[in-house]
Amino acid sequence: MTKVFVIFWFDCEDFVTPESDDALKRLAEILKLNNVRGVFKLVGEKIRTLEKRKRQDVLNALKGHDIGFHTNFHSVHPTVAEYLKDMDFESGALEFLRREGQGVEDIRRVLGVSPSCYGQPGGAWAPQVYLALRKLNIPVYLDSSDFIGLNGNPFWYCGILNVLNLTGSRGDVIGLNFELGTQGFIEEAERAFDEACNRIVKNESWGIISIYNHPCTLVTKEFWDAVNFSKGVNTPLDKLKTPELKPKSWVEAGYSDFDKFIKYVKSKSFVEVVTASDLHRIFKDNALSKLFSKDEIFSLASSLRSISFREISNTYVSASEIFWLITASLADYKTYGRLPDKVMNAYLLGPYKLFNSEALRTVKLEDFLNASYNTKAFMERNGRIPDFVEAGNTKVSPVDFLSSGARLYTKLYNHESPKYVELVEGIFEPYCYVSSEGVKNSWRWVIFPENFEAWNLVELAKLQTWTIKPAKPSF
């Protein structure tokens, strides 16, 4: 049976324009009248401003909806990508927590809920954020970005469910912003929705259509942050300028359009409107608590001609999980003299630094098994793959170590008893899911300083593609 999941999400960020508070309230109320729960991603300063303006009516309207997080100050410089651009993975995560954590605390304090999801401001995607999200117990990344994607699918990355870059037979991303209320726009949005549905239905499977809005765009002619923070400008918070407002007739037409579009979406029998919390439940990662059999691990090892995620027993495992399963098995072989019948899975982060192997050579079996044992211990302590592995007197990249270990596993499985292990060069596929063109598109965000680049973020993002794998629904 075909299922189209539709998620409505809202970036609630304009803490400058009082009228944007009314827009947030109206949109939340329209959703409720249509028996639909939306996802409202709140900026910390926005929720604090609602408190200062005594807009309890707006806060009450949000009750019953899913609440997400959208940074503490959004476009105030330095933005997320600006302050993280030269930081390493772990230090960057701690810096994100230091700068942004207050926004999460204020959401919890004011609304009494923990955020279900996070999305970056504009083009400010950064990989270090994922480690911080894990520490904040925020399980879903919900946004739109060309920086990273997995062939248009929802995907797991660093243990976070990503609904980020949907295309083709797996869905689409549709924006409803300033154009709401203009002649012919909502009909065009309905056509775009139908086209996305048709692609999914033709595939006779499932897909997600991600529909987003910025409430401020219902009442303003321009973005609040473009007025105050474009091209690196940092207007002091006590001198912020409000954007030009739309005529009231246009505003009301926009609400009418939005209501009409929701009704149109709900009229489709195969549509299920969901929230970020719903998607995290529907797309539960069954590999997390799975015991993998020796036969399953052999299947992974024997087919590992190049390293990437794989599907085994109707379950996707990432390259980092494969690294764990094979390495942990070899560590047990060192201890007990046999491969374990079953291994409990572990979802590890990727290495933090790129390392190229020293000259590859042949090492003693004992040395390779010792390296596996020590690597397993490292992973258990640190929750990640090491930057390199030392086998004998040779430092080996994780890619080459896994390729060599997979070959050894197949031999041991087949009851061969080699005295030596040949270290071989591996091929790592998932780097391609970080798009060089996509990152350049992200950096064109009008808020960034002119000619902004952050290639360190690209390298860190590629290292964590050890963790990437498709997300699939459990129904």
Estimate nothing, just give the exact number of structural domains: 2
Please name the fourth-level CATH homologous superfamily of the largest domain: Glycoside hydrolase/deacetylase
Gap between N and C termini, in Å? 10 Å
Count the strands?
19
Q: What Rg, in angstroms, do the CA atoms define?
A: 24 Å
Low-pLDDT sequence parts? none
Largest sheet: 6 strands, parallel
The 3D shape can be described as elongated
Say what the CATH topology of the largest domain is: TIM Barrel
Strand content: 15-25%
Mean pLDDT value: 97
Question: How many separate helices?
Answer: 16
Secondary-structure-based class equals: alpha/beta
Q: Give the name of the CATH architecture of the largest domain.
A: Alpha-Beta Barrel
Share in helix: 40-55%
CATH class of the largest domain: Alpha Beta
